[in-house]
Write the structure tokens for this entry.
Amino acid sequence: MPAISAPRRAFAVTAALVLLTLAGCGYGSQAKDNGTAGIAAGARKIDGLDSVRIGYFGNLTHGTALVGNQKGFFQKELGATEARYAVFNAGPSEIEALNSGSIDIGWIGPSPAINGYVKSGGKNLRIIGGSASGGVKLVVNPDRVKSLEDVEGKRIATPQLGNTQDVAFLNWASEQGWTVDPQSGKGDVTVVRSDNKVTPDAFAAGSVDGAWVPEPTASKLVAEGGKVLLDEASLWPDEEFVITNIVVRQEFLEQHPKAVEAVLKASVETNRWINAHPDEAKAAANEQLAADSGKALPADVLDPAWKSIRFTDDPLAATLDAQAEHAVAVGLLKKPDLSGVYDLKLLDKVLAAEGTPAFDDAGLGAH
């Protein structure tokens, strides 16, 4: 088998995906509001703001936001400024909400962040911090696929045309010497674009032979008899690659830096708590998933999924740059200008106050 180089991720080149429900800001489902119950007596508003609107996905890879919401870390740092939440299930919808001003700050994958930045000519958002690494796997039907070579000729699901996992799989397939048309998904391997919510049913019905998907979908497939054939982390140096970033509207960053700093401080505190209390954090994330969607994850899905994700404040900028190169290489993205996509000054300030070194922006920082 050809040597596997360090990949990837990708950038949503399509803007459509079905939302869970329309509510709150109009682009995603509104999280259950904690109201003002978590606001301490005597607390003051930050920058005179009544609220800061925070978006995230109902995915374990957005565990920082899930736990930060559930345990009140964001509200604590925002004082009397209310932390309000909106839950999304598609990157394009969250970017649209950010562009329209319906949310101020969001947890989001690298693909939509890059795509949103490029499409706006670098004017609508900045990546201001990291959140998570890992949590993506190739899971297959072990009766049909027994080795990596066996993937050739099979039907493999990815979540969406041009999304992070779609380009990751296309890039990996290309490295194996296989040819696949990026738009149709047809070739030496057939790529089936399938929403994560329906992929487990498609897998159980046998209409796909495997899937390159994020958690918890990967562990749901394993619970149905699938086998992990490849963990994407194994393809990256030090087994680290960005799966979730923190982004902000540029206008909000310019006008309310104290509020942005408060959210970043809460994110750093949340990640520290997650890493110090993994079992409690896992339970808190699941509680928030249940509050947002009405359904918690069973233990046989939650436990392995949580273990495969590493929560980190490092934006892992070099891996995002590599992911852009992979998207270009497979023909789903024109070579982008990413200069200025990162603004880590406030994160560096928060880390410096704790005596923690700053993180590298891979030369893509705003100056």
Observations:
- The CA atoms of residues 159 and 196 lie 6 Å apart.
- Confidence is low (pLDDT under 50) at residues 1-36.
- The chain is about 35% helix and 15% strand.
